[in-house]
Amino acid sequence: MRFIIKHEIPGRIRIHVDQKRMSCTEADTLLYYLNTLECVTQAKVYERTADACVCFTGEKGAVIQAIRKFRYESVEVPETVPANSGRKLNRTYKERLISKVALHYAGKMLLPYPVRAVWTTARSLHYLKEGIKSLAKRKLEVSVLDATAIGVSILRGNMDTASSVMFLLGVGETLEEWTHKKSVSDLARSMSLNVSKVWVKSGELEILIDSRQVKEEDQVIVHMGNIIPFDGLVTEGEGMVSQSSLTGEPLPVHREKGGYVYAGSVLEEGEITFTVRKASGSSRYEKIVTMIEESEKLKSSVEGKAEKLADRLVPVTLAGTIAAWFLTRNVTKALSVLMVDFSCALKLAMPITVLSAIRQAGDHDITVKGGKYLEAVAEAQTIVFDKTGTLTKAKPTVKMVVPFCQKEEKELLRLAACLEEHFPHSMAKAVVHAAQMEGLDHEEMHSKVEYIVAHGSSSYVGDKRVIIGSNHFVFDDEKCQIREEYQEQFEKLPEEYSHLYLAVDGILAAVICIEDPLRMESTEIVKALKRSGFQKVVMMTGDSERTAAAVAAKVGVDEYYAEVLPEDKASFVECEKASGRKVLMVGDGVNDSPALSAADVGIAISDGAELAREIADITISADDLYQIVRLKKLSNALMKRIQRNYRKIVGINTVLILMGIGGGMQPTVAAMLHNISTLTISLQSMQNLLIEERKE
Length: 696
Known about the structure:
The chain contains 26 helices and 24 strands.
């Protein structure tokens, strides 16, 4: 590709591509290519000027050489990139606004008055029709105010006023629609599906491959607790599938052979194999957009109050118009009042405020599924933590494998990893990672793996039954035994580690010792949460009483509960809610799912089980628990901004109404000032909440 360097500083260059015009698709292709380069840290492409800004590390020559090699036709861009970029949306609305302005003023200058009058009357029919529809439903809505202002202007023969009012209303509607759709689009991209690896059936084997390598008609296997990465038709197995993020329905649906599954849903129970029908993830993005726009989950109670208040204030504006006419006998003043209403700002600014807060949360790797959850976080008094993977590090590590049989440590680790790689719990990932570090690759050597939530998993290798899991599962539930000669060794297992027990045919074969240290920031996090407004911080774990007590003392939680099952966590949450407290639950495993679902707000760790992330209302990055504190501050700041917006909207529009009554302000000026104030408040609502919070 040919280009010139327009500007450069160390680590950053701005280039101009040598072509007359760059399409949205070409801009998305170039941006995708630049972001795939290892040396590029950030890139932006401006299609209207055919420019690109590239931030990089290392030598400038390497970046320039890579850009020179670029060809649009040689880059394979995933279908989701241009579909979800938002670039086309922005161009569409820019062109729509330019067309509106050009047509309005060209008509004023070029068309004779009689033609303009006919055209204005024809255009007014749309607004009059909407106003009549509202009255027919016995509702006084904004459409009634618009229709009255336009209709009165036409009846008085003031076609220029009617035309200007319709022009300003059209510009306002376009800007409002653009602002809302951009907010929804930004949010949807942050929630889009991102599955990097999938299990594909090849003959009798299950092979783990990159999701980008999957093609239509491939057979994909999904185990319990995992996300369904593509649309497809079930060919084997059966299970219960949660589709709540796509349809909003709270209960999972049964899927068996012949049933259709959708990308982004989660397999709560069972195991299925399906034939891929759509290898692209674009449908996932579209479904999320639809969910955001239509789902009641998005609306917080403050948004609902804003809508109700907006509808109640329409009659107030209408009454003010009538009063202005009676007091002044001046139709112009009355029309000026009519052009000012409270509902536009309330109905636009409040949802945008919430959408912007959700988008800002996404900038901090916090995914929020609806505005009502931010409101609940602001009001929450109790927060409950699962220990493993939350208060402890997200990546526990295997420290040693203690054999209780004649097999070698590596062989036992390989066997354990073979079972554990199918399940997303952090302990299982530690075992799989340890096997990978030892170079213990393997082919599938077992039959179907059965997972028992909060206990462990089992399978058959040949005719031998192999199980791996907790002490309770292996010894209490499965009644496994320890060979007498290993009894003393078992009693001397190091207590500072968590233990996974591997048994073959009812006899203990190995204990895998896993280090699961506390996060360094855990103590500070608990203190910060209490300062931010939480009255009670609770820890719940399946570990022993001794381990739980030691961790609770170090972290500084108010209460802790040891050796709990999934139903115990959910019961505690329900009890707290019954006592009148709003409850947050933080977890990362399949066993946390009942409590995440029961809480007012369920918060899942992004590195945990996909089922937990699906059920949870909010997902945070596994790297930084301070995000929970940020989330609390963001939610508090959101509620303050909403209250401030209420005061601004009511105050500004009241002043405009009084100006219309007292100052003889023209209706077109009133409409313009009203639209400007609405958009100004909406744009202010999109500003960074956390910066605002720090200023306060």
